[in-house]
């Protein structure tokens, strides 16, 4: 696993062993960022990201490499949070990230109280935790965090997390291999 493009291109990323951690594949990350920057290579410059269920931090680190100003990594697992730190330390990006070692619901409440206004919210719970997708998307659909953010959920392509969650509506679904990305915006506004 490595950083695909940007300032830290080709740098290796550490991972954890076990079935609970399933990092977003290099190929799917490349597809995700190609979609986000299509026609505008600097689309991520200065953006704020929230990486929920961050795992190894691969998606948020890719965003930092491509110009994101700040990434909030939300991960409840101590071991995974340590891997995120291990992946970030050699990059020299102190001050551009926050690791929040807490449950997603608690983190969303804390980020709202800090008045964080992300451009992108990425969520990737373990595939086996299917109810967690709905719970998180419902929470985001009723959250100020998602007012102007593009919410992206990575999931197994055989599983459909749903199309509407409060004011969030899916605007696109992209399948690749065994995985899929669902894109949500407030009231289905164009990405």
Report on this model:
This protein is of the alpha/beta class and 191 residues long. It has a single domain, classed as Vaccinia Virus protein VP39 (Rossmann fold). 28% of the residues lie in helices and 23% in strands. It has helices at residues 26-37, 58-65, 78-88, 104-113, 130-141, and strands at 48-52, 70-74, 97-100, 120-123, 150-156, 164-165, 168-176, 179-186. Strands 3-2-1-4-5-8-7-6 form an eight-stranded mixed β-sheet. It is globular. The two termini are 28 Å apart.
Strand count: 8
Write the element-wise H/E pattern from the N-terminal end onward.
HEHEHEHEHEEEE
Through-space gap between termini? 28 Å
**Beta-strand content estimate:** 15-25%
Q: Estimate nothing, just give the exact number of structural domains.
A: 1
Estimate percent helicity.
Answer: 25-40%
- The CATH class is Alpha Beta
| Average predicted local confidence, pLDDT | 92
Give the SSE map.
Blueprint: H1 26-37, E1 48-52, H2 58-65, E2 70-74, H3 78-88, E3 97-100, H4 104-113, E4 120-123, H5 130-141, E5 150-156, E6 164-165, E7 168-176, E8 179-186
